[in-house]
Amino acid sequence: MHCAGFHGQLGCNHDGNEDTPRLVQLGHTTLPDNPTREEEIMAAVVSCGGSHSVSISRRGDLYSWGLHSSGELGLGRHAPTEVFLPRQVILTHRRIVSVTAGESHTLAISENGELWACGRGRRGQLGRAAFHDFWQLQRIDSLRNFRIVSAAAGQSHSMALASDGSLFTWGDGQYGQLGHAALEQIQMIQPLGALAVPIPQKIGELEPSGLSPPKRITAIAAGGNHSMALTVCGELLAFGRNHRGQLGLGEVGNRWRPSRVDLSIGAAVRDSVRAVQVSCGACHTLALILQGTRLKVLSTGDNYWGQLGHGDVDNRLRFVPITAILHAKPVAVQCGAQHSCAVTERGVLYTWGRGDCGQLGGGDEWSRRAPAPLEGFRVVHPDRTLRRTKRCAPKYRAVRRQEAKAPWCLPRCFEAWWGVRGGEVGQPVGM
């Protein structure tokens, strides 16, 4: 996974890195009730992939920028290979309400619950019953009988959650990240063969009709080659690659079917523990849990760059609380490929992990093994960013506390400000 801005994925009209937050502008549009004035197009959702970025405006228009070598920007074959400023993706007569970027592909959900895909498809991750790239958004017709409410894109696999709780996965399945137990048998028979599923398949074990309502899936996240699912009652299910302990199961070894993660280790017997949000990096995972009445951030997996936030570089095989931010009252978490972020209820943003391209936003290119607050900036809750307010251009110029409020939302916006890539993260949940 890349962590630099040389493909234009920062949207700042250059191919360099940024080590402090910088505002990305989607452009301006004419006010419908006053053609002589303009308003800034405000971003409501942002997602960062391997070398590209995508955003939805408050009007439901989709924008993309960065590397377009496999069609991941959805701009068509005639668009440049590298796009340095946000460009609108045309999808006629449809508003986009959710978007997620994988390593080299993009998944978007329209307001009527249709799922669309574009980009690299050589492992079947576009769900179009094919193994080639698509340069424009294509509807995944096999899901037309389901209303999709959430999607997640990993390195080469994809996930989709339907409104009834059905969970579909497709794409690369060689490590178990699709959650289909039958693939393990195929892998045992043909250990050298590629395991790829080019059409969305429902995970039978999680069929909602066979589960009680508290056990049904309500949120999903995709890592490099691992997957996470969150149930209504706050249980965390993990499957896929686990060579670094990124599944948090206390051992290494891939899991081919959804496995329950024990989050209660170390908790007081009297405290109830439930997961409220999960986010996956390349080989690590963050979870926001509610223990008793207190929210805590836990991490597990690869820690080479200090992305687990424990002040060292030792891997963890189970989820361990990050003590450095216990006092800060975290309310949201997000993973990049090898760095991590957390937001507190006061809007303070903490970052840690790999920082050699400025992705931590602290004004340098140093990696950090423990969470550090991003001084001078604050995060605005998504509820506030989604409220439309007309502003004649050019009003928003900065996100510093003493100036305008940041027009980005969380948890998707972290890497859109700086540092250049966001990792293969899953849909934000629990907000």
Automatic annotation (TrEMBL):
This protein's record includes keyword Repeat: yes
Domain RCC1-like stretches: 5-375
Repeat region (RCC), residues: 60-112, 113-164, 165-233, 234-291, 295-346, 347-374
A Pfam entry, by short name: WD40_RLD
Superkingdom as given in the UniProt entry: Eukaryota
Record keywords: Repeat
SUPFAM superfamilies: RCC1/BLIP-II
Gene3D superfamilies, per the entry: Regulator of chromosome condensation 1/beta-lactamase-inhibitor protein II (2.130.10.30)
Protein name as it appears in the record: RCC1-like domain-containing protein
Source species taxonomy: Eukaryota, Viridiplantae, Chlorophyta, core chlorophytes, Ulvophyceae
